[in-house]
Write a structure and sequence with these properties.
The chain is of the alpha/beta class. It is 38% helix and 21% strand. Strand 8 (210-215), helix 7 and strand 9 (242-247) form a beta-alpha-beta unit. Mean pLDDT is 93; it is low at 1-27. Bound molecules: 3-isopropylmalic acid and manganese (II) ion.
């Protein structure tokens, strides 16, 4: 193997690790949010998220401070750097990060994803990727005969291991005899902290109290054996939670056939990536799907984002749907301990989708990006 390409730190998560993702200053009760609008329509949706964040803080009586960072494709093309020196350390001083979107038509795929998104996930040790899958009222799902009562589950995706660790290499690259490897890694610690968090979350969510492990133990007989053993051991500490196992392929089938079966799913990084795009469509498309990259440890820096991409062709047209970003803001508020503010935002979103917006598709909402933001702000008080 070509040793120069086997180091995980080079492939995905170059160090330095300034302070292990922990903030060193106290936040004085002011919620400090770093805003990375990013590429394409990212800044437009992020602006609506900030609009709602500021409005809800005012109503709920707490202070919020935001600071914009211009990281993304344009800056990279102009300066050659994605995250300048000291950026991670500066970001780590905020309570949370709100990310618009990453992906620039003039930058090769993978560069910004690795240099910005995955870099933050790894460096801040955001080991939970939380993706609620909820069909809001008034939103169309492609699943026939299913409504908001049937589609309401949450995927807890491990966010720091698996094939994303960036371990691999080439042998005889560029020759007919070329070999490439990409190694999935699973650690006991990495599995356990995510699985334990998922059990706690299922208990706190208090709905069906069912946690389904999604993996592929029939083929990944080492890695997913560790995952499954860890799941079964941790399960013993949660007798109030019903446990269940699906192979990932079967899970894709059941999600479409019987989405109402699911409550909380815990899964590995790569499978989580895939089943949450499927879930994104089940919940009505990328205009509404939000996710959180969470470091749940005290002082951990978490990052919240809409799941849709940067949609370059819609940039600057005031047509992109900011609902996903606004629900990312609700997740941010919940994680930051502002539960009633989070609830207020979710309620406003559901009234907006249920009674005011014509569609969740870009350009067909019956109003513009900014108007959706204004509408949600108006409804915060309803
Ligand atoms: C996601 C995205 C990322 C991932 C990409 C952009 C690296 O698809 O957040 O699901 O694969 O995790
Ligand atoms: Mn994805």
């Amino acid at each position: 193997m070509d040793g120069s390409e086997t180091k995980p730190s080079e492939a995905v998560a170059p160090l330095p690790k300034p302070n292990n993702g922990k903030r060193t200053v106290s936040s004085n009760d002011i919620l400090k949010v770093a805003v990375i609008g990013g590429d394409g329509t990212g800044p437009e949706v992020a602006a609506e998220g900030v609009k709602v964040l500021e409005a809800v803080a005012k109503l709920e009586g707490f202070q919020v401070e935001t600071k914009d960072f211009d990281y993304g494709g344009d800056r990279y093309l102009a300066t050659g750097e994605i995250l300048p020196e000291g950026a991670l350390e500066e970001l780590s001083q905020f309570d949370s990060i709100l990310l618009g979107a990453i992906g620039h038509p003039d930058v090769a795929p993978g560069i910004l994803e690795r240099g910005l998104l995955l870099q933050m996930r790894f460096d801040f040790d955001q080991y939970i990727n939380l993706r609620p899958v909820k069909l809001f009222p008034g939103v169309d799902t492609p699943i026939k005969d299913k409504g908001p009562d049937d589609i309401d589950y949450v995927v807890v995706r491990e966010n720091t291991e698996d094939l994303y660790a960036g371990i691999g290499g080439f042998l005889k690259k560029g020759t007919p005899d070329e070999v490439a490897t990409q190694t999935a890694i699973y650690t006991r610690k990495g599995c356990e902290r995510c699985i334990r968090w998922a059990f706690e979350y299922t208990r706190k969510r208090n709905k069906k109290k069912r946690l389904t492990l999604v993996a592929k133990t029939n083929v990944l007989t080492y890695g997913h054996d560790l995952v499954e053993r860890t799941f079964n051991e941790v399960a013993e500490e949660y007798p109030d939670i019903e446990t269940d196992y699906n192979h990932v392929d079967a899970c894709c089938m059941w999600m479409v056939k019987n989405p109402e079966y699911y409550d909380v799913i815990v899964t590995t990084n790569m499978f989580g990536d895939i089943i949450t795009d499927l879930s994104g469509m089940i919940q009505g498309g990328m205009g509404v799907a939000a996710g959180g990259n969470i470091n749940p440890e005290p002082g951990g820096t978490s990052m919240f984002e809409p799941m849709g991409g940067s949609a370059p062709k819609y940039t600057g047209k005031n047509v992109i749907n900011p609902i996903a970003t606004i629900s990312a803001v609700a997740m941010l508020l919940e994680q930051a301990g502002h539960q009633s503010a989070a609830d207020r935002v979710m309620k406003a979103i559901m009234t907006a989708t249920g009674t005011k917006m014509e569609s969740q598709a870009a350009g067909r909402m019956g109003m513009g990006t900014r108007e959706v933001g204004d509408l949600v702000v108006e409804l915060l008080d309803a």
